Amino acid sequence: MANIKQGETNPQLASFKGLKDVVSARRLSEIGKAVLKFEAPNFSAGYFDGLAIAYKQSINDPSDIPVVLNDEFYSGPLSVPYFDYRYAAEILVGGIDYGDPQTHCFSIYPFNYKQDGSRDEYPNDIWYCMIPQVKGAVADDFAGFDSVIIGGSNYIQMFWTLPIQGVFDSYEIYARKTAGTFNFAAAQLDVGEGTEGTNYKRVTVNDPDATTAVMDMLVDGNYKVGILTRYTNPLTGLKVDSEFNSAIFSCNVVTNPTEVNCTKLTAP
Asked: 148 with 262: CB under 8 angstroms?
C-alpha cells in the first residue's frame, strides 16, 4: 500500500492546486461518469510521478476511509482511464450509477514512486462531491430553431444548431395548430405521450446529430413551432427536457405558398 504523508511539505514537489470541481454528465457520452476538473500541474520548480484519484462516499463520516481508484490494489466498480498527469485538466471516472442518488466524493493529489515500487502520497484534503444527475441543455446552450421555412404545399422545414452541451438523445418539436400563444408547458400537457392534442401536435426526431426536420401533411392554417431536446432513461423511462427557449416561429401554411420564411416570435 502507499505510504501517505498527510500534511508533509516537500520542496521538490511540483505545484498542484488540487481538484476544482466535480460535475455530472454534460453530454450523452458522459452518462455513467463523473467529470473531475482541475488545473494541470506546474513542473517549473519541482516534480512528482503521478496523480492519485481518491474516492469516498462522504466527507463528513470519519469512518469512511478513502480508496485510491488508480491504485493497483483497488478492485471496485469505479474506473479511471489512462491520463497524462503532466497535462491533464479533466478526468472522467466511470462506473457511476445514474439511477442511484448516492453521493460520490473525490480528491486528487500527487504521489512519487519509491525504489521498491511503493508510493509516497501527498494528500491535500481538497474534496468535491456530486450526486449524479441528468441535466438537459440550458437556453444558453440550446437556443432552439435558427430558422423555419415553408418548404412547399402543406409542410414546413426547421433548422437548428447542435447544443453546446446538455444530455439528450432526441428532439421534440411542438406545433400549435389553433389560435393562441405558444407555450412549451401547455404543449407538453396537451400532447402528453401522443403526437396530437387539442391545440398542439408533436414530432420526435430520434437522431441526436440531426440539425433539420420536416413537419408535413399540414392543413392550411397558422402554426407556431418550437423545439426542445430530450433524454429518456432506457431503464426507468424518466424524461429530461432542455430548458424552454424563446425561438418560436409562426408559419402560415397554405396549399400554394407565396411566403418562404416563417416569422420569429418571442415566447412569453
From this structure: yes
**Which residues have CB under 8 Å from 251's CB, separation 6+?**
148, 150, 156, 222, 223, 224, 225, 262, 263
Domain that holds residue 106: 3-130
Tens of pLDDT, residues 141-176:
999 999 999 987 788 999 999 999 999 999 999 999
What's the one-letter identity of residue 117?
A: G
What is this structure's pTM? 0.84
Strands 247-253 and 263-266: antiparallel
Dist. CA 183–CA 176, nearest whole Å = 9
From residue 177, how far is each of 93, 157, 235 by CA, in Å? 46, 16, 34
Instruction: Tell me which DSSP letter residue 98 carries.
Output: T
Can you read off the three cell numbers belonging to residue 229?
A: 431536446
Structural domain total, the chain: 2
Task: Look up residue 121 and give its DSSP letter.
Answer: E
Taking the C-alpha atoms of residue 22 and residue 91, their distance in angstroms, rounded to an integer, is 10
Model confidence over 18-57: pLDDT tens digits? 999 999 999 999 999 999 999 999 999 899 999 999 999 9
Asked whether residue 104 falls in the same domain as residue 13, the answer is: yes
Give me the residues paired with residue 247 across strands: 266
